[in-house]
Amino acid sequence: MAGELILIVEDNEKNRKLARDVLQAKGYQTLEAETGEEGVRLAKERRPELVLMDIQLPGIDGIAAMKRIRTDERTKHIPTVALTASVMTGDRERFNEAGFDGFIAKPIDVKTLPATVRGYLEAKR
Question: Looking at the whole model, is its pTM more than 0.85?
Answer without folding.
Answer: yes
